[in-house]
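Entry for the shared binder. Reason: the reviewer on the internal report wants the predicted structure included alongside the sequence.
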Amino acid sequence: MKKYFPSLQYANVPNIITTFGLFFGIAACYFLVVERDLRSAIILLSVSMLMDLVDGLLAAKLKQQTLFGQYLDSLVDFFICCIVPVMAVYVFLEPNILTFIAAGFASACGLWRLAYFNVTAQEKRNYFTGMPVPGGALLTSMSIWLVVYYGFPAWICTLAFFLAGLMMTSYFKLEKYGIWQKALWGVGVAFVITVIVL
C-alpha cells in the first residue's frame, strides 16, 4: 500500500488525530455556511482545537514526532484557526472594509506565525515566540459570539482580529505549558461551556 501511497508511511496515531481535527473544522464550515449555526460551528471548532492539543501530547508521549507531523499540524492549524473565524465574519456580520482588512490581516499573521514556528522548531526552545494561532482563534471567535449573540458593536471584531494578528507575530515569549497556557485553556473551556449552555 505504501508503495503506491508513500505518504501513508507517516500514518501514526498523532497524525491521524490531526487529520480528524481537519474533519471537525470542515464540519464547522458546513454549520457556518449552510446551516448558519454559529453555536454548533464554535463547538466543532473547539473539538478540532482539542485534537490539536492531544496530537502534540501523544506525539511526544509515543515518541512519534516527525517533520511530516509538524507540517501537517501547521496546515490544519491554519485552516481551523485562521480561515474558519474569517468565514464566520463573512457569514454572520456585515463587515465594513476595515473589518475585511482586519480579518485578512489576522489570517496572514497566522500564516506567518506558523511558518516561523516551523522554521525555528528545531531549536528546541521551551517557549513560544508570539501567541500560538489557537489563542488568536479563541480571541476572534469570542468577539464574533459577543457581536452576534449579545449585540456588541461590530468594531469589537475588527479590534479583536487586529490584536490577534499583532499578538501572533510579536516577539514576546510565552513559556510552553506555563501559566498563560493554562489560563488560555481555562478561558477557552469557559467560553465553550457558555456557548453550549446558552
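Summary line for the report: The first strand starts at residue 127 and ends at 129.
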